[in-house]
Automatic annotation (TrEMBL):
Residues 173-214 form the Pyridoxine 5'-phosphate oxidase dimerisation C-terminal domain. Catalyzes the oxidation of either pyridoxine 5'-phosphate (PNP) or pyridoxamine 5'-phosphate (PMP) into pyridoxal 5'-phosphate (PLP). GO terms for biological process: pyridoxine biosynthetic process. Belongs to the pyridoxamine 5'-phosphate oxidase family. Homodimer. Pfam families: PNP_phzG_C, PNPOx_N. Substrate binds at residues 9-12, 67, 124, 128, 132, 192-194. This is Pyridoxine/pyridoxamine 5'-phosphate oxidase. It comes from the Bacteria. Its EC number is 1.4.3.5. InterPro entries: Pyridox_Oxase (IPR000659), Pyridox_Oxase_CS (IPR019740), Pyridox_Oxase_N (IPR011576), Pyridoxamine_oxidase_dimer_C (IPR019576), Split_barrel_FMN-bd (IPR012349). Pathway: Cofactor metabolism; pyridoxal 5'-phosphate salvage; pyridoxal 5'-phosphate from pyridoxine 5'-phosphate: step 1/1; Cofactor metabolism; pyridoxal 5'-phosphate salvage; pyridoxal 5'-phosphate from pyridoxamine 5'-phosphate: step 1/1. FMN binds at residues 62-67, 77-78, 83-84, 106, 141-142, 186, 196.
Amino acid sequence: MADDLQSLRRDYNLGQLKKEDLLDNPIDQFNLWLRQIVDTGVKDPTAMVLATVDASGQPSQRIVLLKQLDDDGFVFYTNYGSRKAQDISSNNKVSLHFPWHFLERQVKVCGVVEKVSATQSLAYFASRPKESQLAAWASAQSQPISSRQLLMSQFENIKAKFAKGEIPLPDFWGGYRVKPSEIEFWQGGSHRLHDRFQYTRRADERWQIERLAP
């Protein structure tokens, strides 16, 4: 297979992206594309790659799910002891990537992270299925564990502990908001002449739009 990698290619011809078609606010533009993605029926349309950098300068990536979006930014939830959370504690500059290749599109977001309020985290946690709530309690995310059997044992112990009544929000779990400073929209083009437009937040909080070379 490795010998065939150079021959794996295709052209991109599903559409074009023109500056005059872009909305002034990148969040509005993102919502437009997201609705179009959701309408295709693709699985996990809100899946996004979160890239962080630790204190030593080592980048790391993983897929998380976008759970809320407004003019203040992109929100996801996680364990505050996870690797991503530890990276953020030492360097709050991150990047998000939405790989919507089946429509020959990508969106890249650069910005800084802040925790959402405990009230917001609680509201989202309460909306999760009970099993997901229990899993948040059972898993010390990113920490070594000897076996899946041990993980399932911890899950069953937590399930028994909270068998009656509501499951409380763990104090080690909650949301982060990525406040964007740059958002780039990419549309595949023929002959690798792709359309790329970058929104950059200016000092007056307005957005500047520039076309980038592919």
